[in-house]
Structures are given as structure tokens and as C-alpha cells.
Amino acid sequence: MSEGSLEAPVRHPIRWEDPDFYDEAKLDAEMHRVFDICHGCRRCFNLCDSFPRLFDLVDESATGELDSVDSKDFKPVVDACTLCDMCFLTKCPYVPPHEFNLDFPHLMLRYRAVEQKKGAVPFAAKQLTQTDRNGEIASKVAGLANWASKCGNALTRPAMEVALGVHRKAKLPEFTSLPFTEHTEVPAVNKDAPAFGRKAVLYATCFANYNNPSIGVAARAILAKNGVETEVVYPRCCGMPQLEQGDIAAVADSAKSTAEDLRPWIEKGYDVIALVPSCALMLKFEWPLIVTDDENVKKLSAATSDITEYMVSIAKGEGIAEGLGTLDGGVTVHISCHSRAQNMGQKAAEMLRLIPDVELTVIERCSGHGGSWGIMKDNFEVGMKIGKPVAKKAADVASKYVLSECPLARDQIVQGIGMLGKPTDTIESFQHPVELFAKAYGL
What we know:
48% of the residues lie in helices and 7% in strands. It is an alpha/beta fold. It has four domains: 19-118; 123-164, no CATH class; 180-316, Rossmann fold; 331-440, Rossmann fold (3-Layer(aba) Sandwich), CATH 3.40.50. Strands 2-1-3-4 form a four-stranded parallel sheet, with helices on both faces. A three-stranded parallel sheet has the order 6-5-7.
């Protein structure tokens, strides 16, 4: 085995159904093994807060080595992990097939799965993972829900902080009164487009469905402009919120059911497109590692693309449809961690560069949001600190459009710009690159 593991990373299945997976003594032994390797390497010191917390534990211990660190002190290290996978994919020289066989994010997941099995996950955290239920309720009272969750609401946000542990200053996504799956207008398919004949199912995702349907509407419009016939399907959440809390069984159930629901579409020749990168990551990579023996899950994985990835495939394959116009300002695009974790390249940037004369700035660094992680009372300040370099770069560029493939990351960046004392009122409201791409088409 060569030093540094120059071979492509290999991810092993998650053996969550094996009783040994939940054996606390075996888990503790693996934590010590991996943490000792991390302590000796420290290449990940600047990624997230997990590694500084670990290295501080070691450095402040009696011996300056892991042997004098108490296992009970490992929990803050685990709690700081956002499951972004950047250490596995971009930093760690010891991932499989290296003989050290180190997969830090999935070890953190295992720790959380043990906590979940023991009933140690707080009630409020579990409620926040119920995105479909929460979205369905909030969409029926969207005005009230958005008022209550608005930053600066002195009545509700302090109460929310106490009851749910959500930091009172964290920007929360707004809800729509008309979910994407309830939009009835279907754009006409451009039969003259080079890619005419393609068919795709849009997996709406809970965010595009309940929070920002404009992402779905824009995606469907630019696909139709490029000759792609589309259908919108959203049976349920991908399970990423449950994965973050270690509820792997719930993720497995979601994977099996959703793959079964989408199977008929795949059999009819439809591609599957996820509108948010976290969901694309789940369908393409995490589900097959959790449900290893389900043919529907395997077929769904092979058929799934991220929306920006799909648009670039059209551009490189058949060719993009004519009609893209110039934009009235510069663009800053953030490449999210879960986009990078798909190992597909900077597809959002590639897509936006198709726009004539676009003034594009690309930022590829963590925003500090991490799904629901960054809004929590214990994490918000840390998350803003992690994302400060991204916000500073975006503020210095001062583009009219600030986008990210992850809408939550985009809002974190804009909030970070404001916390730097820089103006944000000139930044347009577009969150996702496909929204701006639709504008360039005049859609």
C-alpha cells in the first residue's frame, strides 16, 4: 500500500444492522484508533470544528497523547461534525483502500446511531428532523410561520431558542403557501432543442417543495427550454435530517420506499434529478451504502443526477438551447460541501459559465451551515466563524447575485455578509444557480 493513499477513495457499506455496530466497547476502541491517527496527522485542522476540538483535547491532556483523554470527552468532537464528508474526500490520506481504513464521518454517524438507539437524542432535535410533517403544517399557515421564525422577532425567537435549541439570531428558511408539488402549470417542451427526447423526474426535495418552489419552477422551465419532458415526484424526504441524528433505520425505510416509488419512472426511461445537493448525495451515494441489497436503490442511484450536473451533461452532450442572454450584474457562486461530496466537479460554475459574458466568482469553502447543525444554539456562533472567510470573500466581490447549490448555505453567507457590517440590500433574492439560469433565458 502506497503512503498517502493515492488511489481513489472507496466507501464501505454501513453495517448498521450488525449488532457489533452498536457495541459501545467496540465503538470506543475504534474511536481511539481513528482519533490517534488523526492526532498524528492533523491535516484536517482547518476543515470544521471537530478536529480543533479533538486536537485541543489531546494537547491539554496529561500526557499530550490520546491515552490520557477520557472517552466521555469525545462527544463534543462528534457533535461538531456536520457529515459534510470533506475530510474523507479532500483531506484524509488514510481513507480506504489505505490499510488504516479511516472514514471519520461514518464513525461520527456510528456514534450518533448508538446515541439514537439508547434514546439519547433530544426530543426537540427529533422534531426538527420531521421536515415533511413540519413543511405540511407550516405551508398551511405560511404567513404565521414566517412571522414567528423571522430574525428579530422578540416574542417567538427567544421562546424557540429555549424550546427547540434554535439560536435566536439564526436565519431560518421561509415557508411557501403553495408547495412545488401543487404547482399545476407545465412549461411547453421545446421540440427544437438539441436535447429534445430526454425525459426526467424532478425529485422535489423538502426544501424546494415547502420552502422555495422557485427552484423547482426554474429547473422545470430551463429543462423544458432544453427539450426535456419533466414530471414532478416527491414521495418523501431523503432522510438526511434523520441521518444527521443517527436514525439510520429511518433512512433505510425512506430509501426503500422512495426507490420503489421511483422505479416505474426509471423503467420508462426517465432520468431522476434532485434539486438540492444534500438530497442528490443521499440518493446517489448514501442510500446504496445503507441499503446494500435493494436493486431499486441501486437503479435509482445510477439514474440520479444533481440539477446542475444534469444541465452540464446536456451542454456537453447534445448542446444547450439557444436564447441565453446576459445578466445585469456580477455573480458569486458558492460550491457547497454536499456538491463537492458528489465528486462531480464545480457543476454550478460550469453551468453559469454558459451565460454570455457572465462575471463569475467561485467560492469553494465551507459556509459553516451544515444542514440543521448551524442554526442550533450551541453551533451558530461556531458556524458563522467557520463561514466568515466565505462571507468576507463574497462581501469583497460585492456581486449583485450571491448563489449556492445549497440554499441554506446561501442564506448563511448573506447573513454573514451582514454581520460583517456590509450591505445586503443590493443582493438579489435568488438562492440557487438554476433560478439565475432561468432569468438568463428570460423565463
